[in-house]
Amino acid sequence: MSGRSVKEFWLGIRKFPDAREASVLPLFALMVVFLIVVGGAAVDVSRTVNAREKLSYAIDAAALSVASRLSTTVMSDNEIKEALADSFRANLSDAEFLDKAIDNLTFSVDSDEGIISVTSSATLDNYFVDIGGALSSFAGPETFAFSTGSQVTYSRFDVELALVLDVTGSMSDEIGDLKEAADSVVNILIPEGTADGKVKMSIIPYSVGVNLGDYAETATDDLSSRCATERAGDEKYTDASYSTEPVGDGSGTYRSQHCSDSEILPLTDDRKALLEAIDDLKTEGYTAGQTGIGWGWYTLSPNWSDLWPSSATPASYDDEDVLKFALIMTDGDFNTYYDLDTLTKKQCKKLKDKGQFKGSCLNGTNDYWREKSSSGLNGESSKRGIELCSKMKANDIEVFAVFFGSNNSSDGAKVMQSCASTGNYYQATSASQLISAFSNIAKKIQQIYVSQ
Prior knowledge:
This protein is of the alpha/beta class. It has helices at residues 3-15, 24-70, 77-91, 98-103, 175-189, 216-219, 271-279, 289-300, 345-353, 380-394, 411-419, 431-451, and strands at 106-110, 115-125, 143-153, 158-166, 199-206, 210-211, 227-228, 265-268, 322-330, 336-344, 365-373, 397-404, 425-428.
């Protein structure tokens, strides 16, 4: 560069501060900072809106999850808070505000109305609005706060459900399908992990009678068998108290005969016990369906409370916080019943020789419970079964009925149709349909008690 050029360059530098056009540069610098702040603010606000949406989704999911559990089990405040926090961790695992959201988590439960309300709040650091804290005095805060809440209804009701299951000889080939179907009811209404449940179920396997197991000693004075059949006296076919006087030959309030080894299980919320009882189902004998229906009712009836352990005591009929259901299933016609006959010793022996009586023939004239055949919709067994169903429904027990067979016009199907409450009859012609019917019934029961 020549000496003249250097001189002109330095003269130009000295004049720059006095040049009017030079004021554009600081204005331009301020404008750049302003645009960065405005653009950055949009980013920060957008991040906050997205974070609030994520928190809102997480709260909805957590509230629904806990509401579902509250519908089936009793939970303490600590259990509810931990369940909500676990749900947050599952749905906000990648959120930078997760810890703050859990710390600020609050909830309330209105047990009278069946409502759980959940709220939470958090903050998000601003990346642009406050650049290192330097702009907080005029550009904005260091963080944006956001909050949201959710309110979900849950069932305030308890549920009592009797499963009345056909384990007669004709079910031998399908007993595995019946077990799977019954398991599905337990899995839906008492899911794994449920404790202190609000849903209790009883299992009543029936064939020619119902095996009362350890409860036979209290219910009847005939301990030669644990298989109970018909009621004695004027109160038979009703849910009157079981503590009536023995009749006739001293065989007891019930005439005991041989039936399936599958034992009755009174109301319980013990999922393991229910699944084990279902797994133990075995088939044998004829179809005295009315006896199964009767004993299903007895597990739900407050009039039978003193037969069962305290944990299995049925609620009173007028308890507005308890809903009662029965699920009755058969694969064929009801064909066996028991009645009280007055016989001489000679008449008794004659019946015994024909295989129509299994007891002891006594001197003189005596009353004996006899097993009798029954057929058709107008047969005694079918009529008694339908009558029992009608009386259950009169006591606000909602009845579901399943006929497992291809002939929907058969007498067995008609009995189930008569037994079922309106809209609650199901026909299953295959194993898959049987399982589906039981599952759909469980879901319908769940919908009923959650929505009321």
